[in-house]
Amino acid sequence: MSTASICIIISIAVYLLGMLFIGFFYSKRNNSAGDFYLGGRKLGPVVVALSTEASDMSSWLLMGVPGLAYFCGLADATWTVIGLALGTYLNWLIVAKRLRSYSAALGAITIPDFFALRYKDKSGFIEGIAAIIIIIFFVPYTASGFAACGKLFTNLFDVDYMSAMLVSAAVIVIYCAMGGFMAASVTSLIQSIVMTAALVIILVFGIQTAGGWDAVIANARAIPGYLDLRHSTNIIAGEAAKYGFIPFVSTLAWGLGYFGMPHILNHFMAISDGEKLKVSRRIGTVWVVISMSVAIIVGIVGFGMSSKGAIETFASSSDAEAILVHIAALMSKSGIFPALLAGLVLAGILASTMSTADAQLLASASSISHNIIRGVFHIQLTSKQEMRIARVTVLAVALAGVMLARNPESSVFSIVSFAWAGFGAAFGPLMLLSLFWKRTNRYGALAGMLSGGIMVFLWKYFVRPLGGSWDVYELLPAFIVSVLVIVIVSLCTKEPDADIVEQFKSI
Questions:
Q1: Which tens digit of pLDDT belongs to each residue from 274-292?
Q2: SS (H, E, C) 259-302
Q3: For tag attachment on the chain, is the N or C end more exposed, with fewer CB atoms within 10 Å?
Q4: How far is Cα 189 from Cα 223, in angstroms, rounded to an integer?
Q5: pTM across the whole model
C-alpha cells in the first residue's frame, strides 16, 4: 500500500472514530423518546443552523453541484442553487419559528406527531399516513446514502463494494442508535465544518493546478455558453443550447421541497429557544449560499484542470460527480501533508453523505417506533421500553436500507430527486397551511398528503415521459395539486372545532 493511501486512510479513520465517540458520549444522555428523537429541545442556534444545512445538502453539495457545473456550465447548477438558496431562506424565515412554538405547545416530537396533534386526530389516520409516507420515501433515500459511501471507498481503494457499504452503514447506525438526535446533530455540525474545509482545499489546489484563475476562466470561455446563465452546454460537443422556461422552472422548483422535509423541520423543533432562530437563519443561509457557490466554482476549476491534462475529461455529468475524488487522488501524490489533506477532502465527501443519512435514519425510525407503534396502535410503553424499541428500529430501518443498496449500479441522485419531490408535495403544502390557515381541517390534511404523494408518482412515471412542456420536475405540479386539494376539501367539509382554532390563534 502506498504512502498516499495510508495517509488517506488515517484521515478517514480519525474522522470515523470521532463520529463514534460522539455517539458514545451522548448515549447516556437520552432518557426519553423526546431526548432520542428531538434532543430534548436543547440545541443551540449554531448547532441548529449548521446541522440543519449539513443534513440538507448531502452528497449533492460535494458531488452533484460540481459535476453539473463541470459538464454543463453555469446555467443548470446556478439556477438549481438559486432555487435551493431561496427555499432555505424562506423555510427559516416563514416556517422555523412558528413550527418551534406550535410543536412545543402541542408536545409534538415528530412531524407526524405535529400533524395529528394540530388537528386533534384521535383516529390515527393522519399520524399513520404521514409515518408511512416518511418510510416510503426515506428508506430508499437512506439507502442511497449508504450506496454513495460504498462507492466512495470502492473507487478509492478498490475494495469490495458490499463490505465498504456495510462498514459505512455500521458507523452511522452505531452513533445514531446510541446517541440519537443529539449525536446526529453534533456530528452534522462537525461534518459541515469538514465539508467546508474540503471545498476550500480543493478550490485552492485546483486553481493552482489549472494554471491560475485567468487560465480557468480562459478555458471556460472557450466553450460556447459555458459561463452564460441563459444557455446550457455540453463540454464534449462544445455546443450551447438555450436554457428554456421549462428547465428554469424545474430547477427553481427544488426550493419548494424544503417546506416538507422531515429531517430539516425536526431541527427547527429542536432549538432551545425559538427567539434564537434568527441567528440560526443567518448562519445557515450564509453557509448554504457560500458553500454551494464554491461548489459551482470547483466544477469550473475542475474543467480547467481537465483542459490542462491534470485530470481526465469526464464524458457525462454523472461521471463528473466524482471530480473531487479525482482531484483528491491527484493531491495525494504531492507528499505526506497533501495526502493527509486529500484524506480530509474525501472525509468531507463521506461527511456530506453521512450527515443526511443519519437524520433520515432517525426520522424513518421515529415513524415506526413512535408514530405507528405508539400513535396508531396505542401500545403503551415505559420510557426504557420506548428507548429500546427506538434503537432496535434504527437498526431495522438501516438493514432495510442496506438491502436496497446492494446494487452498486443504483442511481443515487435519481432517488434523491424523487424523494425530495415526494416529501415536498406530501408535507410542504400541509405544513404551510397548518401553520398559517386556521380553516384547514383534518379532512383537508389527509386529502392533501395523499394527493401530493400520489401526484408525484403519476407525474414522474406517466406525465413527464411525454416530454416537451410536460417535462417539468414532478415536485411543482404535485405541490400545486396538494395545495388546491387541501383548500377545496377543507372548505367543503366541517369547520375545525373551536378549541383547535383557539389554539391556532394563541401561537
A1: 999 999 999 999 999 999 9
A2: HHCHHHHHHHHHECCHHHHHHHHHHHHHHHHHHHHHHHHHHHHH
A3: N
A4: 38
A5: 0.90
Distances (CA, A) of 105 to 101, 109, 370, 471, 487: 6, 11, 19, 42, 25
Contact predicate 51/267, CB 8 Å: yes
The burial class, CB within 10 Å (0-12 / 13-18 / 19+), for 9 is: middle
**Structure confidence by residue, pLDDT tens digits, 376-426:** 888 887 777 877 887 888 888 888 888 877 877 655 556 778 889 999 999
The DSSP-derived string for 142-193 is HHHHHHHHHHHHHHHH---HHHHHHHHHHHHHHHHHHHHHHHHHHHHHHHHH
Instruction: Tell me the CA end-to-end span of the chain in Å, nearest whole number.
Output: 61
Q: Whole-angstrom Cα distance, residue 504 to residue 290?
A: 37
| 73 phi, psi to nearest 5 deg | 85, -165
Q: Which residue has the cell 424499541?
A: 389
All residues at 6 or more sequence positions from 118 whose CB lies less than 8 Å from its CB, including other chains? 102, 106, 108, 434, 445, 500
Which DSSP letter does residue 377 get?
A: S
